Amino acid sequence: MRFELDLTLDDLACRAGIDLATLSDIETGNVCLTGRFVRRLSVALGVRMVDLMLSAAVQSRVSPRAEQSSWRDPETAIVRRRLTPDGVGALTELVEIEYPPGAACDYRDPPFESTEHQVLVLDGRLELAIDDGASLTAYALDAGDCIHVPRGCGMMVSNPYQRSARFIVSISSI
Question: How does DSSP assign 68-129, residue by residue?
């Protein structure tokens, strides 16, 4: 993606706030891409996080579960599965995420300026805090609960419970 934007490795490292050597290792596949770096790179490249986790895709209106792209963060063991069919140009992406017990991610820096999110808990329990820039509001979510995260807000997601939490995130471009 950086070649399409005519960015040098150094340019991207500066934009993303990632050490040049680490970014080089990520690009060459010497180290695994973690959730922490996916967030920074997606903002620096101006693309959605799920787009960084995909390989070249064939357009199809149907996304069979067996063919859905999934990615496991080696640092947190969080598993993300892209549900939206590849290559259809959807304005809303659906991602299924599984947080093992003790997993946590901070998605506040930078905040989501051009997307809004909805989170629907399918199984387990989840803690989610929304940061609107002025305050941080925490929510405890159970299976069946859905929460809206407005554009311009960041969020923190954690699973402090004894069993895994599985949820769907709807990411809408505005």
Answer: --EEE-TTT--EEEE-SPTTS--SEEEEEEEEPTT-EEEE-SS--SSEEEEEEEEESEEEEE
| pLDDT at residue 137, as a whole number | 98
Which tokens hold the place of 163?
């069993």
What pLDDT was estimated at residue 60?
65
Domains along the chain? 59-173 (2.60.120.10)
pLDDT at 53: 63
Token duo for residue 143: 């299976």
Is the bond preceding residue 110 a cis peptide, omega within 30 degrees? yes
Name the residue with tokens 């690009």: 27
Residue of 27, 137, 3, 157 whose CA lies nearest to 80 = 157
pLDDT < 50 regions, the chain: 55-58
Q: What pTM does this model have?
A: 0.69
End-to-end Cα distance, the chain: 22
In the structure encoding, which two tokens stand for residue 78, read together?
A: 């969080």
